[in-house]
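Question (not urgent): is this output format expected?
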Amino acid sequence: MSQTVALVTGGLGGIGTEISRKLVEQGYLVVATTFNKEIEKADEWQLVQKEAGFDLLVEEADVTSFEACADMVGRIEKNVGPIEVLVNCAGITRDSFLKNMDEPMWDAVLSTNLDGVFNMTKNVLDFMLTRTHGRIINISSVNGQRGQFGQTNYSAAKAGMHGFTMALSQEVARKGITVNSISPGYIATQMVMKIDEEIRNDLVAQIPMQRMGEPAEIANVVNFLASSDAGYITGANIPVNGGLFTSF
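Got this back:
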């Protein structure tokens, strides 16, 4: 009998790695995706995870390509097992004031961060509908809720993920599939910690909890939403931002 699969796009990133590890701990066979194994040094990453006790698979696919996503999902369903959990975590930034932003900067962020959610979800959804069960979890951002100076492209894409989540959740609720989003605030990934210390301190000063979040704190919420305990939660957005932005 094949093991239940969790598919994590952007799984080699700081937050993606913690999500992947957490789901392995829960007994999932986790497939982390990368857009390019060589550039992201996937073999090295995979070895590091295995030495730490996390046996993870890696698949290569460009989430901006519908065909590439379809091929990857088909391979996993055939050769690995049924995808029960999809975590859309792949994302990029191309920050700029709008007056300086060119079309490629806009297109790159929207095609990865928003089109990628459609490309992955559409292909996984067909299998989930057949099995009448599934969990789709979209990693958005606090900046998709409040907007962010110099991030019109990123904020638009992340806000679009919320609309996608709310609409799809209504379409598939009767089929045993939940669709939710998580909006992290400032998380202490390696990439964020490389930011100049003075700038980081300014960011932390804006957060009521006076600290950045940890990647594991996002992974814990993913784990909950993927579990049977969250079976009656769908169409929701879970903020994990230390109080940086609050709403109801």
